[in-house]
Design brief:
The complex is a heterodimer of chains A (about 280) and B (about 325). Chain A is mostly helical and about 280 residues long. Chain A is about 75% helix and about 0% strand. Chain A contains eleven helices and no strands. Chain A is elongated, with a radius of gyration of 22 Å. In chain A, about 50% of the residues are buried. Chain B has about 325 residues and is mostly helical. Chain B has helices at about 1-30, 35-40, 50-60, 65-75, 90-125, 130-145, 145-160, 175-210, 215-220, 225-235, 240-245, 245-265, 270-275, 280-310, 310-320. The radius of gyration of chain B is 24 Å and the shape is globular. Classes of the chains: A mainly alpha (about 280), B mainly alpha (about 325). Chains A and B meet through helix 5, helix 6, helix 9 and helix 11 of A and helix 1, helix 6, helix 7, helix 8 and helix 12 of B.
Chain lengths: ~280, ~325
């Protein structure tokens, strides 16, 4: 693990990525322990500029913005992890099934992926939330569905190249059950590119969640995310522009850090994937 | 040549199937929405008579496959029914705002090509130089900053603080200067990410072309470096750019949704958003269908275009057909 991090550290952009992600993790995990209660309303103290007491100022209800940004960051990271886990699990399952089953199943799965990707991802998430209503859980499922085809496609293509490799064929000839072959021989060999794809998608997931929450169709107050914080700041922009700055900065740092880290991870795990920017 | 026609036909056919599949998926998703439309639209005042008349008007009293068939056959003819809230045909409402959204997405695409390609080429000419490293860092920052954040920041700086550009709307119809002024900020907000992405794509692709033997031969013949790059290397290096144009347009239309809301521009995004707020599913369904249609069509066009431009693709496609 240490050697692995060391290789990322030496990769171009990897160092900045590690540092930025570490900063974000600090904000999400350590700041809430030190900062005041993010929900403590103190109306006379509203719209304060940054000070020692409130490093990012206060919002329209006099709540401490650093504490709120910390909670928002935590939920953004949490949502990103759950979304990626869901679409990775779904994509791996569909991809392996498509690659190792018959032609018809393969056609159905690829067709499904094509149909889902016929919607630009924002539009798919938007329509799903539009139909089923806003809220954290529904948003997570909607974003997971939008990212699923990528995972299914990469799993399928990786599994297809394995399918006729001698060690898989011999495992099959030995009469091992399909589930064992998949678990012991297929999955370990395709997991690398899938992990890379997952890490490259984390920034997009964070952005999508923030954007949907920003327009009021994602996380609903009193739950907090970076998107709802940006929305609150946007609504009161004519009175104070401090509230929006903190959340926007953290969102930008989070996406930048995760992107740099993801790219360094890709270059370390599989330099062949590098071709594309 | 007949090979090419066959390939194009196959591409159009799969595209059409995908659109039909997408419409079906959307239709099925709507069926699973909990609660019935009548009580959502009329609220607690709903009566059985109102419910029945709405069901008849919307065709929801028919069995599911019949509804799907009716929706598909109407959609193919461009008939999405009537907006139950405004009483106007949905297609008219969509066509009324579609040009605004397309103008925004296309101008953002144009702007990102116009800036992204030269930036990428500049970086590739001297790899590892200071300019290259600055451009590399800049591209990552541009790519990772979400476009709605850029939109808010632009609004903050140029409309509210500096008061240089109009804040909201799409401009007075028939006044091109005013419309253009309203287009600048949302276009920039949308284009920023793609400028960074295209710069990196062009850089990588141009570096690859410049390493090829035919470029070395050109240099050995004494062709000036600017001619090597601009005339011989940049053209093949742009093929990957063309290949992602369809995806870019889809992404920009999706992003336009947020830009329209932030800048208060009438467009598909605002139309769909208002429909969501009033739980007007038919309008959401129709808007999404139109966007899918535009997106899939753009992708087909791009595929055909890449085939027409890239001789390698043409040959392999021909061999494949044989």
């Amino acid at each position: 693990m240490r050697a692995f991090l060391g290789r990322i550290w030496r990769e171009k952009g990897g160092r900045t990525g590690i540092l930025l992600v570490a900063l974000i993790l600090c904000i999400a995990l350590i700041v809430p322990l030190l900062a005041p209660d993010p929900n403590k309303i103190d109306v006379p103290m509203r719209f304060l500029p940054p000070s020692l007491l409130h490093p990012l100022g206060t919002d329209n209800l006099g709540r401490d913005l650093l504490a709120r940004v910390a909670v928002g960051t935590r939920s953004a990271l949490w949502i990103a992890c759950v979304v990626i886990a869901l679409s990775m699990a779904g994509g791996l399952t569909l991809g392996v099934i498509a690659a190792l089953s018959g032609r018809l199943v393969d056609r159905l799965v690829t067709g499904f992926c094509d149909i889902v990707s016929a919607f630009p991802s924002y539009i798919l998430v938007f329509s799903l939330v539009a139909l089923y209503g806003a809220g954290l859980g529904k948003l997570v499922v909607a974003i997971a569905l939008a990212f699923l085809p990528q995972f299914a496609r990469i799993t399928r293509s990786q599994a297809l190249t394995l399918r006729h490799r001698p060690f898989i064929e011999s495992a099959r000839l030995m009469g091992l059950p399909a589930t064992t072959i998949i678990r012991r021989h297929v999955l370990p060999n395709i997991v690398g590119p899938v992990i890379v794809l997952a890490s490259m998608n984390i920034p997009s997931v964070i952005t999508t969640e923030a954007a949907m929450s920003f327009i009021g169709l994602g996380v609903q107050p009193p739950q907090t995310s970076l998107g709802t914080l940006i929305r609150d700041g946007y609504v009161f922009l004519d009175q104070s522009w401090w509230p929006i700055i903190g959340a926007v900065a953290v969102l930008a740092i989070a996406t930048l850090g995760c992107t740099l880290l993801g790219e360094a991870l890709r270059d370390v795990v599989d330099p062949k994937l590098r071709r594309e920017p | 040549m007949s090979d090419a026609v066959g390939i194009i036909w196959r591409r159009v056919l799969t595209g059409a199937l995908t659109v039909v599949g997408a419409i079906t998926l959307l239709f099925l998703l709507i069926q699973f929405v909990p609660g019935d439309l009548a009580s959502i639209l009329y609220g607690p005042r709903v009566t059985d008579a109102l419910r029945a008349s709405l069901a008849e008007r919307m065709g929801t009293d028919q069995p599911l496959p019949v509804q799907l068939y009716l929706f598909l056959s109407h959609a193919v003819r461009g008939d999405f029914g009537t907006n139950v809230i405004s009483g106007r045909p949905i297609l008219d409402e969509i066509l009324g705002v579609l040009p605004n959204t397309l103008a925004l997405a296309l101008s953002a695409l144009g702007l990102s090509l116009l800036i992204g390609i030269p930036l990428g080429a500049l970086a590739a000419v001297r790899p590892g130089s200071l300019a290259d490293r600055i451009l590399g860092a800049l591209s990552v920052v541009l790519i990772t900053t979400p476009s709605f954040v850029v939109a808010i920041l632009l609004l903050l700086v140029f409309s509210l603080a500096l008061d240089w550009l109009p804040v909201a709307g799409a401009g007075t119809p028939g006044d091109p200067v005013d419309q253009l002024a309203h287009l600048i900020l949302p276009t920039t907000a949308l284009a920023v990410g793609w400028i960074g992405y295209l710069a990196r794509l062009v850089r990588a692709s141009l570096l690859e072309v410049l390493a090829e033997p035919h470029v070395r031969t050109l240099r050995a013949y004494g062709v000036p470096e600017w001619r090597v790059i601009l005339i011989y290397a940049l053209r093949p290096a742009l093929i990957p750019v063309i290949a992602i144009l369809g995806m870019a347009l889809g992404d920009l239309i999706g992003g336009a949704l947020f830009a329209e809301l932030i800048f208060g521009r009438p467009g598909l995004g605002t139309l769909a958003y208002n429909a969501v707020v009033s739980r007007n599913f038919a309008v959401v369904q129709a808007t999404t269908t139109v966007i899918v249609l535009v997106y899939v069509t753009a992708n087909i066009a791009v595929d055909i275009l890449s085939g027409a431009i890239d001789p390698r693709f043409r040959r392999t496609a021909g061999e494949e057909a044989r």
